[in-house]
Design brief:
Helices cover about 50% and strands about 10% of the residues. The protein is an alpha/beta fold. Strands 2-3-4-1-5 form a five-stranded parallel beta sheet, covered by helices on one side. Strands 8-9-10 form a three-stranded mixed beta sheet. The termini are far apart.
Length: about 600
């Protein structure tokens, strides 16, 4: 039961007990009444008794764990008329004013609605005034992480060196959003979630004080669904009390929550593990028809799966349930693997996260329950199908195709800048060489014979493979990809792939012909097409022909510089070259 001091405080505040919500009515008034948080209470008590107070504190932690209540208790302990101490009287005008929120020297600021720099500047102007009636002037800033960057900057200097007898308490649920510069000027005290036993004990005390009849199972259900938050637990108790009055049962709590009994959920989990799809669908539909809240249903399944995992790993002593439920859980995990439990637990956790964005959450839950345990088999399939992939190339080769594209180059009508002769110039350098042996001529012309029989793909399929090769070039050398971007395949024969550049300028052609760039292009083309290829431009001499004489020991004078129609590019006026460059970069002349 509540002690006489707390009862007298409630009466003195003029509150009507039958009309005040439980979480306000039973708000802690002293350090000893704070549920849990022993490390916080001991730290503040020592600071008060030994006069080691810090000018600024950060109270961080989950909602409903006592941050604001502790700040008020600290204010009362420092400003009580009976003197500074860890046990305020709760009867004097200063204690009552702080509890009511009417004290002029204990200012509570909601940072969520006072986020701007102007609000903090106003605070900085008033902070230099001495306390009116209290010994300490205290600023309690709730949800301080909501302040803007400018507001934090305006608070920095004042927070670091406040006037004498001024204390800041910054309360937040998200301390990571507070700038490091603020953290370094404050002492941080972190509030933890309350345990199930702590919440259950407090609920039992309140039901006794309010003459409410409730069994242990119903109290336990309320505490379990509070999520470690005392305020949520008291709000839920208030809701059930409003619904059923001074006597309620476990079934009433489940009805308010939209939940389902554990024994039915355990039976459902057995069905999921067995893979009985019709029964899974039927059971879920039954839960929905009976009024179950889908979000609550997923939360309850997560709790049961966590307990199953503990039992499966020999940690059943960590579970706080009645004996009947514990026996049902043990029986349900006897034939289930540890991996299956973890897999379904992971699926339910993701379902809870995704459900808020799904228009039909019950359908999402159904999908997850039907597919969660089949995930490992699905994951193996890509590895099993990896081996046959090389056969994809011959399949394309078997498709009927038109005759091979003739070798003489064709320049697109949209790009008439480069004039390519009708007869390829690749034959001309050979005339200036020493007489070529017959064996060399055969070796040079040999690759051309299978060309007619090995042009299996259409230009459309070739272009797709060339785009794949360009992706590889882009990853290795983005500048070279910029030159090749938009290029298209003219034809492929005899291990040679002829491409046409989108911007067929002399500079771009020279970049393609550079040995390092040519090696990169050929490497990625070979990987994409699945065969050894040399990529050339229209009219460019084939690389094999350049290296034949070097391989046989007779190096020709023309092998050192590739013969290419680039050398015979027609003369273009300066104005035209400028216009070409501007067009290439999509710019304009100013």
């Amino acid at each position: 039961m509540l002690d006489s001091v707390t009862q007298n405080t409630c009466d003195t505040l003029g509150t009507t007990m039958s009309h005040e919500t439980f979480y306000r009515k039973y708000r802690s008034q002293t350090f000893d009444q704070i549920v849990g948080q022993d490390h916080i209470k001991q730290t503040l008590k020592n600071a008060i008794e030994n006069d080691r107070l810090t000018h600024a504190y950060i109270f961080s932690g989950p909602r409903g764990t006592g941050k604001t209540s502790t700040a008020r208790i600290l204010a009362k302990s420092l400003n009580c008329r009976e003197g500074k101490g860890v046990q305020p009287c709760l009867k004097c005008d200063l204690c009552l004013g702080i509890s009511n929120g009417t004290s002029v020297d204990v200012i509570e600021i909601d940072a969520a609605s006072n986020t701007g720099v102007d609000n903090i500047r106003e605070l900085n102007e008033k902070i230099n005034f001495m306390p009116v009636e209290c010994l300490y002037k205290m600023y309690i800033i709730d949800e301080v992480h909501m302040l803007s960057t400018g507001a934090f900057n305006a608070l920095l200097k004042t927070l670091e060196e406040p006037p004498q007898n001024t204390i800041f308490i910054l309360a937040t649920t998200e301390p990571h959003k507070i700038p490091v510069t603020i953290h370094s000027r404050c002492q941080q005290l972190h509030f933890r979630n309350l345990t199930l036993d702590e919440i259950t004990t407090q609920l039992r005390m309140i039901t006794t004080e309010e003459s409410i009849t409730a069994d242990d199972k119903s109290i336990h259900a309320i505490a379990r669904n509070a999520g470690g938050c005392m305020r949520d637990a008291l709000s839920l108790l208030n809701q059930v009390y409003s619904f059923k009055g001074e006597s309620f049962t476990y079934e009433d709590v489940l009805f308010i929550l939209g939940s389902t009994e554990d024994k039915h959920l355990i039976t459902f989990l057995k069905t999921v593990f067995s893979g009985d799809e019709p029964k899974i669908i039927e059971s879920l539909q039954t839960f929905i028809n009976d009024g179950a809240n889908v979000m609550q249903l997923v939360a309850d399944l997560l709790v049961l799966l966590q307990r199953m995992l503990l039992i499966k790993n020999g940690l059943q002593d960590e579970i706080d349930v009645d004996e009947g439920t514990l026996n049902d859980l043990k029986a349900s995990v006897s034939s289930v693997s540890n991996d299956a439990i973890k897999l379904l637990l992971d699926a339910m956790a993701k379902t809870e996260l995704e459900m808020r964005w799904f228009s039909r959450p019950e359908l999402l839950l159904q999908i997850r329950c039907l597919t969660a345990l089949s995930t490992p088999q699905v994951a193996v399939q890509p590895a099993q199908q990896a081996a046959p992939q090389p056969t994809a190339q011959p399949v394309q080769a078997a498709a009927p195709t038109p005759p091979p594209v003739p070798k003489p180059p064709l320049v697109p009508a949209a790009q008439p800048r480069v004039d390519i002769p009708d007869e390829p110039v690749i034959q001309k350098p050979q005339v200036r060489h020493a007489p070529i042996q017959k064996s060399e001529q055969i070796e040079d012309e040999a690759p051309a014979k299978p060309a007619q029989a090995s042009a299996p793909a259409t230009n459309t399929s070739l272009q797709g493979l060339w785009e794949k090769a360009l992706d590889g070039v882009k990853k290795e050398k983005s500048a070279l990809f910029g030159v090749l971007k938009g290029s298209r395949v003219q034809g492929k024969e005899g291990g040679q792939l002829t491409i046409i550049l989108k911007q067929d300028f002399k500079f771009f052609r020279e970049k393609v012909l550079e040995s390092e760039n040519a090696m990169i292009i050929n490497t990625h083309a070979t990987q994409a097409f699945g065969e050894s290829l040399h990529v050339v431009l229209p009219g460019q001499k084939r690389p094999e022909a350049q290296s034949v004489s070097a391989g046989t020991g007779s190096k020709s004078e023309g092998s050192s510089a590739p013969a290419s129609p680039i050398q015979k590019e027609p003369t273009v006026s300066l104005d035209q070259r400028i216009n070409d460059v501007v067009s290439m970069f999509e710019g304009s002349i100013v």
